[in-house]
Amino acid sequence: MTDNPDRTIGVAVLGMGNVGAEVVRILDESAGDLQSRVGAPVELRGVAVRDLGKPRKVAQELLTDDPAALVARDDVDIVVELMGGIDPARGLIRTALENGKSVVTANKALLAEYTGELATAAANRKVDLYFEAAVAGAIPVVRPLMQSLAGDTVERVAGIVNGTTNFILSAMDETGADYGDTLAEAGRLGYAEADPTADVEGYDAAAKAAILASIAFHTRVTAADVHREGISSVTSADLVAAKKFDCTVKLLSICERVHGTDGRQSISARVYPALIPLSHPLASVNGAFNAVVVEAENAGRLMFYGQGAGGSPTASAVLGDMVMAARNKVHGGRGPLESTYASLPIAPIDDVPTRYYISMKVADKPGVLAQVAGEFTKRSVSIAAVRQEGAGDDARLILVTHRAPDRAQSECVAALEDMDSVLKVSSVLRLEGTDD
Amino acid sequence: MTDNPDRTIGVAVLGMGNVGAEVVRILDESAGDLQSRVGAPVELRGVAVRDLGKPRKVAQELLTDDPAALVARDDVDIVVELMGGIDPARGLIRTALENGKSVVTANKALLAEYTGELATAAANRKVDLYFEAAVAGAIPVVRPLMQSLAGDTVERVAGIVNGTTNFILSAMDETGADYGDTLAEAGRLGYAEADPTADVEGYDAAAKAAILASIAFHTRVTAADVHREGISSVTSADLVAAKKFDCTVKLLSICERVHGTDGRQSISARVYPALIPLSHPLASVNGAFNAVVVEAENAGRLMFYGQGAGGSPTASAVLGDMVMAARNKVHGGRGPLESTYASLPIAPIDDVPTRYYISMKVADKPGVLAQVAGEFTKRSVSIAAVRQEGAGDDARLILVTHRAPDRAQSECVAALEDMDSVLKVSSVLRLEGTDD
């Protein structure tokens, strides 16, 4: 592991979709720069693809449909995994690490489940496992959290880390169109996949939340620990109502250190669509852009903003990792791996203090507001703002609560649903990004 | 340089001002966390101060007024230099590096002159020289540029990296007060030093531009290479006029890859107050906050935002570096040092394409605009927008040009100053952050 600038660093790329194709292109076009930055030549040894027959912009002899054989080659020092999914990626990465190869991956679903297993394999062989591209594409978030903030105490990470849902919510806000039409439009424009479930139901954002929470709080957090709600029930009426409270609606991935009244700490990791004030830095993050706000004890509030998806931006993050892994191969040493020493417990969503926005159709008669307010008082949830709108059959009550345990908030909603004078609870969203 | 978790990492801190005091506090309060993150205990060996008699929040026996003796101690592995200034910091850091100690510094003035010398000393002994805190305080900028973007090609870095001047310009914009009064107010509030020259004349921002340009373009850039103009000539009238063009005024540090018509590349590093469109992400960075926008070929546009100064935020960056340097001491390896392989030439400001905003008092008679426009046409500078305001003795012409070499722009201004019908060129600022 000492300096050896004479060696050549061999790279294997697994998967040649949007990101893989860009990685292969840049490896070729920037070979000179990459060599200068690494301190040794970097050579592409091969690219594993599913379909060898498909025309691709890479020399045919570099292609293989046997990723295991490619990973096993002695002249491969770094494996760049961009195939996605759990299997066979998991086994290939493990084998690579166990054989002393460093790995760069953008596979958030895999990392959100198996970082522990993979990081252990990397630690055993003293090699790198880098994954900047797994969260927020080109935006450096993993490395700043893991390294730049290594001497600080992170209190909260809140981000817009899914471009598809942010595109949909931004478009609904702008056009007034409803969810279904906007999703269809997003699909036509290439912002939503044929099966958009992973994005719109928050699975992608939850995997990223698990990765961010793990790093921020030095605790192993998996996707199953993340409370998850998607955007499919957000209506255009919610976006209109949000504006009346000087807010907009965003799908947020939130990782929070929860300070219990007994002084004990726990972690909340959660994904849901929420109202945030228009003055909040995340409110102006529109379209397919991503942004992550980090709040740390000493650093204060930091924001990272940029393109969270797409071939070239994601390839930029992959190649930054690859250069660092290659440098370590040449000069010795390695980057930090999983840090789980804090082992904080996960706070169930019920215990996490939240704020609610509730919109309901009510009977147009005197005393309804007092009755509604009574249900909140009973559960020690205080109301921050109320709007009464419409009249007759269209009488509506919209209210926003102060912070209280989520369980108390959701019990208030259940009580409202049981009230005769509340005809329908049309919408319930949380409110984030406020100080009180 | 192999794993040795049993060793203790000894740290010497040079200087105990705002930042030093916070570093010492956090080293003490977070000892357990730091040990877990480093993989070995971290111990403060001593703090060098100028005045031993001053009361400080650290055990008296740790204080010394002999920094050279502290740096020379065998049980010091990492030197944290926070004294500022060129001497004796330069010699102390060199000695530390030459003796195999890693160094963390926030000393931008020193780095803007002597990174070459210091990085060479670090490279010879295979130790770290980290300086995240030297640019934009708590905001991770150095590490993302050096590591996360290591596989990309940076085209431009533009930042608000001086809190004092940003506080003054924001306050002038908000209150309409003039420069002198606002500077005095900033001094009273602790946002400007007794001698504000380094801030208001752009020396601080220029040192940071030199550091950023060096990293972004893999070329050694020193403060002398940076074209520098301060904010002392910005008037409240400029801020009012800027608004009419949907702009505001910010002191920008700009590092740009200039693509010559012959295909050759050069670097422009420059600091000056400039108009930027209100829609630009830097326009809403107000008060003492800092932000840096990076544009890279593949990553696209990234923005980093946060607190650029202050004891705790800067200490956060210092400690992040310290943890990484300590990890390398324990686990082997080291971070990237100076990278100067590209060795691009520096473009003189005259050759750099810029846009100008020019405000002038003119004679209130027909034909003045045509005359003025003629001077621009002669020099192949095209005018993007013109406003004629006032009348009689208060007739004014405000114009904004399209992009052209800065020399041609400044020659237009000189020609205007010679025109009889132009009574006074009251203000000249550049316009940045537009695509055309």
From TrEMBL, chains A, B:
Keywords, in A-Z order: Amino-acid biosynthesis, Methionine biosynthesis, NADP, Oxidoreductase, Sodium, Threonine biosynthesis
Molecular function in Gene Ontology: homoserine dehydrogenase activity
Keyword Amino-acid biosynthesis recorded: yes
SUPFAM superfamilies cross-referenced by the UniProt entry: ACT-like, Glyceraldehyde-3-phosphate dehydrogenase-like, C-terminal domain, NAD(P)-binding Rossmann-fold domains
Record-listed E.C. numbers: 1.1.1.3
Pathway the protein takes part in: Amino-acid biosynthesis; L-threonine biosynthesis; L-threonine from L-aspartate: step 3/5; Amino-acid biosynthesis; L-methionine biosynthesis via de novo pathway; L-homoserine from L-aspartate: step 3/3
Domain (ACT): residue spans on this chain: 357-430
Needed cofactors: a metal cation
Reaction equations catalysed: L-homoserine + NAD(+) = L-aspartate 4-semialdehyde + NADH + H(+); L-homoserine + NADP(+) = L-aspartate 4-semialdehyde + NADPH + H(+)
InterPro entries noted in UniProt: ACT-like_dom_sf (IPR045865), ACT_dom (IPR002912), Asp/hSer_DH_NAD-bd (IPR005106), HDH (IPR016204), HDH_cat (IPR001342), HDH_CS (IPR019811), NAD(P)-bd_dom_sf (IPR036291)
Superkingdom, natural source: Bacteria
UniProt xrefs under Pfam families: ACT, Homoserine_dh, NAD_binding_3
Family: Belongs to the homoserine dehydrogenase family.
Function: Catalyzes the conversion of L-aspartate-beta-semialdehyde (L-Asa) to L-homoserine (L-Hse), the third step in the biosynthesis of threonine and methionine from aspartate.
PANTHER family hit by this protein: HOMOSERINE DEHYDROGENASE
NCBIfam families in UniProt: PRK06349.1 (NF004976)
Protein name: Homoserine dehydrogenase
